[in-house]
UniProtKB/TrEMBL annotation:
It comes from the Eukaryota. Residues 32-71 form the Leucine-rich repeat-containing N-terminal plant-type domain. Its main location: membrane. It is found in: Membrane. It comes from Aegilops tauschii subsp. strangulata. This is Leucine-rich repeat-containing N-terminal plant-type domain-containing protein.
Amino acid sequence: MAEMPPVRLLLLSLLFTLVIATARDSVGNHDDDDGAALLAFKVGIRRGGSSGPLRSWNSSTSFCSWEGVTCGGGSGRVVALDLSSHGLAGMLPAAIGNLTSLRTLNLSFNWFHGGIPASLGRLHRLQTLDLSYNSLSGTLPDNMSLCTGMTALVLGSNNLGGLIPSSLGDTLTNLKKVSLTNNSLTGAVPASLANLSFLQHLDLSINQLEGSIPPGLRGLRSISHIDLSANGFSGALPSSLYNLSLLRSLQVEGNTLQGSIPADIGDRLPAMEKLVLSRNRFSGAIPHSVTNLSSLTALRLGWNQFSGHVPRTLGRSQDLRYLELAGNKLEADNSRGWEFMDSLANCTQLQYLALDNNSFRGQLPGSVVNLSTSLEKFFIGYNNISGEIPSDISNLAGLKVLQVANTSVSGAIPESIGKLANLVMFFMFNNALSGLVPPSVGNLTRLNWILAYNNNLEGPIPASLGKLKDLNILDMSKNRLNGSIPREIFKLSSLSIQLDLSYNSLSGPLPSEVGSLTNLNWLVLSGNQLRGRIPESISSCTVHSKLVNEQVVRYDSRCLRWNCHFERAVSGTEQLDWANPSCSTKFDIAVGARFVVQ
């Protein structure tokens, strides 16, 4: 090979040096641009200054060491900015669009407001954009479609409005995750979203979207999660969605969708874990093949128009944790239909079971006591079921909410109920329960609510209820309870919402401990046989919004004092005008209460 002339070698050497110098100059300039963009971002926010979470952002150190900033190893350019959950506020500065090497921008869980700056369209290398959980408004910028390498677009829980731009599906074809939940987006779902063949997660829930769900979404062959809940979608759910064999979660609750579930759903969606169709207008039978969904953890079909029997082997889905069938027209009676309850004993992780508001009839199945000890919430009321509450109900040791209301269930509340130590809410109203209130209820020290009104319960109110230090509501009205009201009840300072013992046969005086109910909003004692003087201690109860006693009560001739004075003292047998007391407090005494003085 011929030797290169010295002059030519010199020229090439100079040229190479110039290129390197120019490149270094360019990198240096970009470094300066990134630092300036970050400082402009800092200036534009209301918090995070010298004493805030961005106090490390100053010229004394390289911006690559600043909090939340990540630079590329070779280029020295900013490739990631993560300031999530920093309490930052203000409008997003347009200067953020100058970070042109940015691949990840995460400003979620802050207080940013105003619009999304159009300058974000200059971030051509951006892959992940997360601005969720702020207060951003306006529309989605059209030029965001220039970020063609984006794989995750997360803008949920803001105040964004307007249409979803069709360009989202036309140009951002690398997207794997789109989350626009909890905004105010309107209009239809663009058919172009069907082009997102790599999309795995689509969440458009809690918006104001309407129209039909595009059947073209069958093109989302990689999709595993679809959430279109709480919108205004109507029409039939496209049958093509049931062909998305990788789909693990389909949620469309809270729309006005209609139609039926395909008979072969269990074969078409083998990976399904969460199927949520509740609060729509779906009808027909629940197909037996749903029991083939072996990975199912949540099945929510409540508040539709499903009819017929529940598949008898539903418990084959052994990982089931959440089963909601309430608010339909499902049937069962003593001869047929309750078999599914037996199979649910196989669901050892079941935590939520809602069967209320259906057309179930017959005896309450004894197999209810074989349900999972992990069961926390059980609703079976508003059905025409009968029979008694089994004593082995105590097997359900994990129960926090028990609702057997508005049924024909009769018999006594079993003493074993006191073993449900985790119970927080106890709903047993509008039944035919009879017998004594078991003192063991006093063992349920986590109880917040007891609603046992409109039954045939009799005997005294157990003083043990005074141990329920977390009780907010006690309603045992419209029963046949007798005896005096235990003083311990009135010592429950936690009673803040309602104490209703009306329309029983309670007698004796009103204990002076009633003055301890300083937080109570509603006290109802009408329809009993209480006698004697109203305690002056009740003047401490200045938070009451209602004090209702529509019966005739005899008490000693004295002027009542409620931190206010009535317009005139009462004597003889005059009717006290409770409707017009001269009060300066917030005390609101119900109109129509009558007391006769002797």
